[in-house]
Amino acid sequence: MAPEGHEAARGQKAQIKLASLNLFNFIEPPLAAYEFDRIYSQEQWQKKCAWLRHCLSSLQADVLGLQEVFSPQALECLLGELNYRHFALVDTPAGDEHVFHSPVVALASRHPIVELAALQPEPRLLPLLGLAADFRFSRTVLRGTVQLPDLGKLDVYVVHLKSQRPGFELAELPAMTDNAVTDNALPEKKGANAQIARLLTHSALGRYSATLRRGAEAMLLYHNVQSRRLESGNPFVILGDFNGELTRPEFAGLNTGAADIHPRDRAELTSLSEADFEAGAAAFALHDGAALFLHWLRQQSPGTDWQVRPTHYLGPRGSVLDHILLSAEFDGSLSSALADVVNFELFDEHLRAPLYERDSQSSDHAAVCVTLSTRQKR
After folding, report:
1. What is the pTM of this model?
2. Distance between CA 182 and CA 276 in Å, rounded?
3. Which of 102, 79, 90 is nearest to 31 (CA)?
4. pLDDT means over runs of 10, the chain (378 residues)
């Protein structure tokens, strides 16, 4: 089954495809992920590699952002078979002996990667956000500059933000004691009540802790992106597993625009007209690739309705956790845009209609992919 998406109209100029995929524990045996007995058999490993070849061959993306990489050498070799001649990391998977617990992100491209950087938070921002001086991204953010035909240099960010799992262990939560006096307070029930209350408290506080960290990572990433924007002027794309819908409160800052700036904070820009200020702010906007595609689609067919399917499922409940954010150069509503987002694909057959023989060692995430069609230069 091919990835589903809307195809671009014929006659478009050069096209570039950008994709993101959480590989879900890409770790070559005999290494283990997180637990000492979590090791693929050789058969399972071969199935995982075969599935990845199938997925990437179906997408045919030019640039890939990949998450949950434990075995980068094996991944680089596999990608080389698929004509991804350029491969980059900025960090090393961490572990103890053969058990690894900290995967990394990777960038793969069919076009040259001409610059590479490992991003960490700006230290001067940490106290302003109430964060400890040693705060770091859960997984080091990779920024690679790819030299693309027609488009030129594109800054590509590969991210994997903090998961939704509790930010601390149950054992770290202070003990809770049931001292309530009731008519039928049996000792065993009192003990159970305390355990239940502790589990609920851990879930609530732990998820809140994870949300705070994920939000801090997103805002520190935003600062990095805007700083680089001023430095290079390059168009950019953010590829990654955000571990949350873009509508979640912790990501609200990613949508900051001119309307969010209070008039008194613009005192030094009084010479700018309102239109010029709005245009200046728009140049720094981050755009959801799915929203840009829907805009293009409605230009072609007014009234068309379309939405992204979930990229991850927890039981029957699906969520869009994986995203592609693009700079203003790909906002099709602007006459100055360099390219339009003319397709948005989701490779999710392994999630919606899995076949055991093919998909038993696949990812628990869908791959997301946008197609950019460059505009004629004036």
Report:
1. 0.91
2. 69
3. 102
4. 47 84 98 95 98 98 99 98 98 92 98 98 97 97 97 98 77 71 57 78 84 96 98 98 97 95 87 90 96 94 90 96 98 94 98 97 98 84
**Distance, CA of 177 to CA of 193 (rounded, Å):** 9
Domain spans in the chain, listed from the N-terminal domain onward? 15-162+236-249+285-374
112 three-class SS:
coil
The angle at the Cα of 58, spanning 53 to 61, to the nearest 5 degrees, equals: 90
Tell me which fold the domain 15-162+236-249+285-374 belongs to: Deoxyribonuclease I; Chain A (3.60.10)
Q: Is the dihedral of CA 245, 251, 256, 259 positive or negative?
A: positive
Beta strands in 120-262 (DSSP E): 141-148, 152-160, 236-241
Q: How far is CA 236 from CA 112, 239, 327, 340, in A?
A: 16, 10, 5, 14
HSE-CB of 292 using CA atoms within 13 angstroms? 31
Question: Beta-carbon neighbour count of residue 152 at 10 Å?
Answer: 12
